[in-house]
Specification:
Largest sheet: 11 strands, mixed
CATH topology of the largest domain: Trna Endonuclease, Chain: A, domain 1
CATH class of the largest domain: Alpha Beta
Shape: elongated
Number of domains: 3
Number of strands: 17
CATH architecture of the largest domain: 3-Layer(aba) Sandwich
Distance between the termini: 38 Å
Structural class: alpha/beta
Radius of gyration: 24 Å
Number of helices: 12
Helix content: 25-40%
Oligomer: single chain
Strand content: 25-35%
């Protein structure tokens, strides 16, 4: 299966599950392939055929966007060097949950969450520690549980404290004791690691003097500016109330696709998009994204004026 086919399959799953999605056609060279939204739930998705090809730098834009909109990052894949991505299993790449298309379908269409996660050492599950404790209170000793599971007594205690169990040990416990112990996994409760996000900071400006001047002015009038890479936008500009997907460049054919992508995502997420350009001529917007010239920006001393221009030209 090609990457484009993975993306289209994912679009179909999210649409069937009641999500609105961005148009993947505008994001072909970005670090993510789609944004999906259902109510307050926002998912930023990346699709790869072979997950071994994922590197940390390729995820910076995805992480930055996810953090800015309080969303959940998710990767779908088909295979890895050691074989296929198993259905019903949640994997992880750089702290981001990864799963197969069938697992995605089960989660959102069938509403059946996965039970197994992959970690160094094999497949693991979460155990219901309360059930384990009740069994011990009912007369099954720590040693007996350890013998059934094929682990140490200390490991059983760690299971009771919430540590994940190897799938094989959990199945032995369930089969012998005749009770369900394995708990489902919710990949959407992912909490982004701060250290992963730090690597997104300070990217995207390079030697772009125009961008540096524009970002500096936005900072001066009260906006926080986070430059991005591998995104259709060049920065995430925000204050306490508003988020602006911000592009910088010249009005030419090369920015049309980016402008459309920014407009597409901003409308889906109820945020703003804006392109700051060297000169805009008679154009007030491009691809649905409002344009503000460098000269116009230099004359603005109140950040509210920027929102007024965006609303007027959007």
């Amino acid at each position: 299966m090609k990457r484009e086919e993975l993306v289209q399959e994912a679009v179909g799953i999210f649409t069937k599950a009641g999500f609105s999605t961005s148009d993947p056609a505008y994001l072909s060279h970005s670090g993510f392939d789609m944004v999906a939204r259902r109510g307050e739930l926002i998912i930023v998705l990346k699709a790869v055929v072979n997950v071994d090809g994922i590197n940390r730098n390729s995820l910076t834009g995805m992480l930055a966007l996810t953090r800015a909109v309080d969303g959940t990052p998710l990767i779908i894949g088909a295979k890895k060097s050691s074989g296929k991505i198993e259905d019903g299993v949640v994997y992880s790449r750089f702290g981001i949950p990864l799963m197969s298309l069938d697992t995605l379908n089960d989660l959102f269409i069938e509403e059946v969450p996965p039970l197994v996660y992959s970690a160094p050492g094999g497949f693991f599950v979460r155990l219901d520690s309360e059930v384990l404790r009740r069994m011990r209170d009912g007369g099954i000793s720590l040693g007996e549980l350890a013998e059934i599971a094929g682990v140490s007594r200390r490991t059983i205690q760690m299971y009771e404290d919430g540590m994940g169990a190897k799938l094989s040990a959990a199945l032995r416990l369930e089969n012998t004791l005749g009770t369900e112990l394995i708990l489902p996994i919710d990949p959407l409760t992912y909490n982004m690691l701060d250290e992963a996000f730090v690597e997104c900071q300070g990217l995207g400006i390079g030697d772009n003097d125009l961008a540096a001047e524009i970002f500096e002015h936005l900072n001066e009038i009260g906006y926080s500016v986070e430059p991005t890479s591998r995104c259709p936008f060049d920065a995430l500009t925000s204050d306490r109330e508003n988020l602006l997907f911000t592009g910088v460049g010249r009005v030419d054919k090369n920015i049309m696709k980016r402008a459309r992508a920014m407009s597409n995502i901003s409308k889906l997420l109820d945020r703003y998009s804006v392109f700051f350009v060297e000169e805009r001529g008679s154009k007030t917007s491009l691809g649905g994204t409002p344009l503000i010239s460098h000269v116009e920006l230099e004359k603005i001393g109140d950040k509210k004026k920027i929102l007024e221009l965006i609303n007027d030209r959007g």
